[in-house]
UniProtKB/TrEMBL annotation, chain A:
Pfam families per the UniProt record, alphabetical: TPP_enzyme_C
EC number per UniProt: 1.2.-.-
UniProtKB keywords: Oxidoreductase
GO molecular function: oxidoreductase activity, acting on the aldehyde or oxo group of donors, iron-sulfur protein as acceptor; thiamine pyrophosphate binding
Name of the coding gene: korB
Protein name: 2-oxoglutarate oxidoreductase subunit KorB
Lineage: Bacteria, Pseudomonadati, Planctomycetota, Planctomycetia, Planctomycetales
From TrEMBL, chain B:
PANTHER family tied to this protein: 2-OXOGLUTARATE OXIDOREDUCTASE SUBUNIT KORA, PYRUVATE-FLAVODOXIN OXIDOREDUCTASE-RELATED
Keywords: Oxidoreductase
Its EC number(s): 1.2.-.-
This protein's name: 2-oxoglutarate oxidoreductase subunit KorA
Keyword Oxidoreductase included in the entry's annotation: yes
Domain Pyruvate/ketoisovalerate oxidoreductase catalytic as annotated: residue spans: 29-219
Residue ranges of domain Pyruvate flavodoxin/ferredoxin oxidoreductase pyrimidine binding in the record: 265-476
Any Pfam family hit: POR
GO molecular function: oxidoreductase activity, acting on the aldehyde or oxo group of donors
GO biological process terms held by the UniProt record: response to oxidative stress
Broad EC category: oxidoreductase
Length: 340, 623
């Protein structure tokens, strides 16, 4: 007997909650929210199966604005909450919404562990290089010298590179996009949604109140073409408005920008391989930072590995197969017993 | 006192006793925990009532032979029901000078001291800080019946033909010691022999060596001229039924698995290793075929927050830790309290603050568990009284959590967690059913996550349920809708509502009972692992004609409804605690009762005699 299952056709509107959105006007978060609402209906997953878990910060208000299941949890701990949700019910698609402060400062530990375990969750990090909700202190991703209320003479910290950390934790999926690059962001979110395992996406996000224009190099038309490389699996690293520049490795194995033509062809360039098992290429791409180098956008790494939640359930299943379904009577009577 | 001859006793006198306290102590590599556990097993299987107290060194491996590396295991076994591992030691087995030095003060005058004479050589003596050999002078040990047994060399001889290395051969000396004590107390070694055979199944030479050492120790008892008496302790008259031995941590694991099984739910344990709570994780990790998911998190905060997530998604979720770990979990508990999700947090208390006395028992986390969260955040607290009671209180904690949609704290302690006692195996068909509903039973189109029932409890409807999509979180909620609401009136309303919900649990827990007279001169109030010592002290005082009763509180928040009335029926109140007076402060604040404390913070449980002494003192003042 076959059963026809027709999923309701969902639209972005179906994912909008009735809550008033309280982000600052022109905040980059609006665009990320809009793209998320566009992507979810395309995944073929019933609405009730989505869970959004967030930490604390502007970005972390996100779950309130989605008409799905969700939890606004505590600062930095969303990956751990989400791990509990996914382990309790692996049938749910669980998204973690976090910011650069939330996930790299107070939550650095959980960020690293959720990725190395490969729990099947989607971690979207809104990176605005600043603390917005606490009104403008520097964050772990702020460039050295950033002047803020807590660093009036400029920060002396060296910043963390989120993708390097993620790749170092052996994330099976790592990608980057920009809030206002609507089509690109949609495609990256969609690929993250479809990845089986922990998917990490860094989104450059504009905080127009405390750190306006930090990512103009990567978002502004006319500038971004010269500053960004869109990664495509199996394709050479070419960029520029006229696609006349590329990246190749120099004699020391370091990436360098070269002009195409004049004896340099696409074949001389570095080719992207998101499926590479070793992480050297992904590290190298993550290390390319503006303004010294063009910054890569897109999927840095996408490899297949068993997920943590599957492995946990396989153990439960094999233990049940081996010993039979747990029987309290038998459990209580194990070991030495005696009658009185 | 009866004297009978038993076969194989070589004509020696057999003396009958009611209760005996034995302590094995030695270097932490000497296998003393193993010897103690095995002796407990054979005594329990024989039918004695047993109670145990393991005592671990805090260092993983202090230098061999030093005072810091001494590991001990105390057992009381008896022909009547007992509630503690005993005050004074009747027989002390000391495997080296350091063990002797740190334990001999607990041996009663006239008690039996069995020492491994071989270990009393110069370097061990100096490591233990002895200037001379206490076995060689006439004063040091004159109060005791000293049996000098060259255990190392006798063990080496016993296993000589097995081709073991000298080190392997010497490691069997704990079995020699066990054999000797088995003879001394007429224990049947069969359960230990079976255990050795299965434990070392893959190493037949070790099976043979340990069995030979055990036999050699037993035979030494028969043949040596030095020991002329051995003892018999008859089986205890416990309520009829089938029994096994459990530790508190085992019983907690059994209790939570039972709650999950009875409710048809998956059990989720998120934890981070910490002494003395880790055994709960170890026990549950073995029980995956009971649909148990265990998650060893990266830290205590991940442990509690993973449990919050698992509870949100529908599992019966628990986490366990000890003092410092519970401190880290405070914020997570607050999240669970405001999101009103059911979960249980187990605190196996140890000496604090900070790392404190990591392997020793204390009851000093009561304030932290009662109050240690930001905001006005009362949570239910329950505390098992003994290792076996952990089975019931685990289920009670989970029942309260689910029935009232709240995190519940279960306060155990190191003494309960590692101690063992007989447990009457329950009839599974008689266990209280445990129903959980995750259905949406509301009328109307829109699901209201903070709509409440008569217990002020909100519904536990799970992600994945169509049409009930909702968000929870740490920001203040509006009643009924659960929407974020910071308005002043709403915060006051919700704070009161949450507190009233927890206070209302008092209508659903048993009333406080007392052991002893319904009114009188003195009421002794206890909680947690001091139950045994207080119970015995009060019982003995009543037998001596004193007007004293005992109320042991297992529900600490809310208190049983009648507790205030109970307290009023006595002229004085004594609250013995292994802290500086935490319950006393709360009782005084709640009931305006002029309670007196008996407080001990030495990392050790109460002796019965300490509590008795205080009872007498207070009653004498009264009269």
């Amino acid at each position: 007997m076959s059963v026809d299952v027709t999923l309701p056709v969902l639209s972005p509107k179906d994912f909008a909650s009735d809550q008033e959105i309280r982000w600052c006007p022109r905040c980059g978060d609006y665009s990320i929210l809009a793209q998320m609402k566009k992507v979810l209906p395309t995944l073929g997953i019933p609405k009730e199966k989505f869970v959004f878990v967030s930490g604390i910060g502007c970005s972390s208000r996100f779950p309130y604005y989605m008409d799905t299941y969700g939890m606004h949890s505590i600062h930095g701990r969303a990956p751990a909450v989400a791990t509990g949700v996914k382990l309790a019910n692996p049938d749910l698609q669980v998204w973690v919404i976090t910011g650069d402060g939330d996930s790299l400062s107070i939550g650095g530990n959980h960020f690293m562990h959720v990725l190395r375990r490969n729990v099947d969750l989607k971690v979207i990090m809104f990176n605005n290089q600043i603390y917005g909700l606490t009104k403008g202190q520097y964050s772990p991703t702020s460039p050295t010298g950033t002047k803020t209320k807590s660093t009036p003479f400029g920060s002396v910290d060296r910043p963390l590179n989120p993708l390097s950390v993620a790749i170092g934790a052996r994330a099976t999926f790592a990608a980057r996009s920009v809030d206002v690059d609507i089509k690109h962001l949609c495609s990256v979110l969609e690929r993250a949604a479809n990845h089986k395992g922990a998917a990490f996406v860094e989104v450059y996000q504009d905080c127009n109140v405390f750190n306006s224009g930090a990512f103009e190099f990567a978002s502004k038309k006319g500038k971004k073409e010269e500053n960004v490389i869109y990664l495509e699996h199996g394709k050479p690293l070419i960029f520029g408005k006229d696609r006349d520049k590329g990246v190749r490795l120099n004699s020391h194995g370091q990436p360098e920008v070269v002009e195409l033509g004049k004896g340099v062809t696409a074949d001389d360039l570095l080719f992207h391989d998101e499926k590479a098992e070793d992480m050297n290429l992904a590290f190298l791409l993550a290390s390319m930072r503006h303004p010294e180098m063009p910054e890569p956008m897109g999927v840095f790494r996408c490899v297949d590995h068993p997920t943590y939640n599957d492995a946990v359930y396989q153990q439960v299943e094999s233990a049940t197969e081996r010993s039979g379904e747990g029987d309290l009577e038998a459990l209580f009577n194990t070991g030495d017993t005696w009658n009185v | 006192m009866a004297t009978t001859d038993v076969p194989g006793s070589n004509g020696k006198i057999s003396e009958q006793l009611d209760a005996v306290v034995i302590r094995f102590c030695g270097d932490s590599g000497d296998g003393m925990q193993l010897a103690g556990t095995q002796f407990t097993n054979v005594s329990a299987v024989f039918g004695n009532d047993v109670s145990t107290l393991p005592d671990f060194p805090a260092e993983i491996r202090a230098p061999a032979g030093t005072l810091g590396g001494v590991s001990g295991f105390q057992i009381c076994f008896s022909s009547s029901d007992i509630f503690t591992p005993g005050d004074e030691v009747d027989t002390l087995i000391a495997m080296n000078p350091a063990a002797l030095k740190t334990n001999v003060a607990d041996l009663r005058r006239g008690g039996t001291l069995i020492v491994n004479e071989d270990a009393f050589e110069k370097s061990n003596l100096s490591k233990a800080g002895y200037e001379g050999n206490p076995l060689e002078d006439d004063v040091s040990l004159a109060a005791y019946q000293v049996q000098r047994v060259p255990m190392t060399s006798l063990t080496r001889d016993a296993v000589a033909d097995l081709g073991l290395s000298p080190r392997e051969a010497e490691r069997c000396k704990n079995f020699f010691a066990m054999g000797l004590v088995y003879w001394l107390y007429q224990r049947d070694a069969t359960p230990t022999e079976e255990w050795v055979k299965s434990k070392f199944a893959k190493k037949p030479e070790l099976v043979e060596a340990n069995l030979k050492a055990l036999q050699a120790g037993y035979n030494y008892g028969i043949t040596t001229e030095a020991i002329t008496v051995h003892y018999r302790v008859d089986p205890a008259e416990l309520p009829p039924g089938k029994y096994r031995k459990v530790t508190g941590n085992e019983a907690l694991a059994f209790g939570f698995v039972t709650a999950a099984k009875l409710s048809g739910k998956q059990l989720f344990y998120g934890g981070y290793p910490i002494t003395p709570a880790s055994d709960i994780l170890h026990e549950l990790s073995k029980l995956k075929n009971f649909n148990v998911v265990t998650f060893q998190a990266e830290d205590e905060i991940a442990a509690i927050t993973s449990v919050v997530g698992a509870a949100y998604a529908g599992d019966l979720a628990i986490t366990a830790s000890s003092g410092p770990g519970i401190a880290l979990k405070g914020e997570g508990m607050g999240l669970a309290a405001i999101t009103e999700l059911p979960l249980v947090v187990i605190d196996v208390q140890r000496g604090g603050p900070s790392t404190g006395l990591p392997t020793k028992t204390e009851q000093s986390d009561l304030y932290m568990c009662m109050y240690g969260r930001n905001g006005d955040c009362p949570l239910p607290l329950v505390a098992p009284a003994s290792p076996a009671d952990c089975f019931e209180m685990a289920q009670e904690a989970m029942r309260i959590a689910v029935e009232f949609m709240t995190p519940v704290i279960l306060l155990s302690d190191g003494y309960i967690a590692n101690g063992a006692e007989p447990w009457q195996i329950p009839d599974v068909s008689q266990l209280k059913p445990f129903n959980v509903s995750n259905e949406n039973t509301q009328d109307g189109d829109e699901f209201m996550p903070y709509l409440r029932n008569e217990k002020k409890t909100r519904p536990w409807v799970l992600p994945g349920t169509p049409g009930c999509e909702h968000r929870v979180g740490g920001l203040e909620k509006s009643d009924v809708t659960g929407n974020v609401d910071y308005s002043p009136e709403n915060h006051q309303f919700m704070t009161t509502l949450r507190a009233n919900k927890i206070a209302g649990i008092a209508d659903y827990i048993p009333e406080q009972t007392v052991e002893g007279p319904e009114s009188g001169d003195l009421l002794v109030i206890s909680w947690g692992g001091t139950y045994g010592a207080v119970r015995t002290a009060v019982k003995q005082s009543v037998q001596e004609g004193l007007s004293v009763a005992h109320a042991h509180i297992r529900y600490l928040n809310p208190f049983p409804k009648n507790l205030g009335d109970v307290i009023k029926r006595y002229k004085k109140v004594l609250i013995p605690e292994l802290n500086t007076g935490q319950l006393r402060m709360i009782i005084r604040g709640t009931y305006l009762a002029d309670a007196v404390g008996l407080n001990k913070v030495q990392g050790k449980p109460f002796l019965i005699s300490e509590v008795k002494h205080k009872i007498k003192e207070l009653i004498n003042e009264e009269n």
